[in-house]
Design brief:
About 30% of the residues lie in helices and about 20% in strands. It is an alpha/beta fold. A hairpin with a 7-residue loop joins strand 7 and strand 8.
Amino acid sequence: MPDLMKLFFTDEVMRRLRNAPQTMSLQWRRLVLTASGPAPPDPFEADLILRARAQRAAWEVYIDSAHAVGLLDAPHDRDLVQRLTSVDDDQFRSAIAECLAAWYFRGKLGLPTSARPTGARNRPLELLVKLPEGDMHVEVKSPLVEPICDGVARSFDDSGLLEERLAKAASQFGQDTMNLLFLTGRLTLPIMDHRRFLSKAFYADQRMVIPISKRTGEPTEPMRVEYTADGRFLKHWGDEGPRHTRVSGVMFVEEHIRDIPTIGRESRRMAFHDALVMHNPNATYPLPEDVWGDCPQFVRRGDELLWTDGHQV
């Protein structure tokens, strides 16, 4: 296999990236693409270089996987390469997200994966994954919440952003297959420990209810938690029933560069991936549960929805 990083990120591309307005994301991208040689003596700079090397190694694997599944085959290869080498942060992020998805299904889960199935209105989606239950079409989105660095107070509720991505994907999927929305990026809080807004976007919101006496203004009962089923997978529109039935589920994969314990040599870094799968209980074509490895899943068990790893709902 050719060295795709050298093939795509040529001297001309690097010159274009260097001369573009330097956002934080673009500065990091340039560091990742150029990080080489021994680590500097300064501990902070050394850590930054080690993280950049780990990120580059991950990108190499993602892009090689994209090539292996056919994302870089004609006629769609030019669009993906243009986005990978674009100075625009959003364009690059969407492109590397598609490559990451190719690696996740083919490399990590070991599932037969190919590129560019046809969705609604004969428009191409990203990936087709062969499962025993049938073909699964995959559309990739890359939501990103920028870190808070200006001291301005902001909401920690990312459910609206997630709903927007689901609504967009729903309009792109066809109606006769399993359809998975694959999300990868970063929200305000890490997804493994903070799942409430995933649940709010796709299932139900929780509210604290305290019954109050109209006469005395005092509580009449202890506070309780109630759930309002107005997330995209559960909400009903009048007598029509649930509307988002063509989306079989959502997978969110969050990448982290973490330390690897070593003995007798310099510290190492590697990309790790936290992942969650959320099944749509009203899907026309439900997702299977046995193909996701050790990934926690939000599933229906009788009349109850729960996380398979026991995480509190």
